[in-house]
Each structure stands twice: as structure tokens, then as C-alpha cells.
Amino acid sequence: MMIKINAKESVEIVEGVFVSIINESGAQYLSWEELSATQVECFSGMNREFQEVYAKYRDDMIQ
């Protein structure tokens, strides 16, 4: 899932595979195996919560 945070930041999360943080400083690629338990919890939670919000509003966006 690619999440555009604002004009200067994006986060791409492929749960169980990698996280890519892209900002004006450059891109930071993190393999899932490199992440700490806290980071895994954070990125997994972010991914899950964005999917829930998208599912809630998806039908209204497509009309």
C-alpha cells in the first residue's frame, strides 16, 4: 500500500516484505526483517487502519 502523507512524504508498506519511506531527504528502504518489533507493530497498524478507512469511504469516492 502506498500512502501519500503530504506533498513531500510518502510511505509504501508491503506487509511482511518491506517499507519504503520517501521524503525530500531521499528514500529509505527497510526490509521487513530489519524492522524492530515496535516498527513492525507501527507499520502493520498503519496499514490496517488505512485499509479500514479506505473500505469505509470507498463506495462514496467511486460515485
Write the layout of secondary structure elements.
Layout: E1 2-6, E2 9-14, E3 18-23, E4 26-31, H1 37-62
Antiparallel strand pairs: 1-2, 2-3, 3-4
Please tell me about this protein's structure.
The protein has 63 residues and is of the alpha+beta class. 41% of the residues lie in helices and 37% in strands. It has a four-stranded antiparallel sheet with strand order 1-2-3-4, covered by helices on one side. The radius of gyration is 13 Å and the shape is flat. The relative contact order is 0.16.
Record the strand order, biggest sheet: 1-2-3-4
Unreliable spans are: none
Tell me the radius of gyration: 13 Å
Order of helical and strand elements: EEEEH
Q: State mean pLDDT (0 to 100 scale).
A: 94
Helix content: 40-55%
* Distance linking N and C termini: 22 Å
Which structural class matches the secondary elements? alpha+beta
From the spread of the alpha carbons, the general shape counts as flat
Portion of residues in beta strands equals 35-45%
Q: Report the strand count.
A: 4
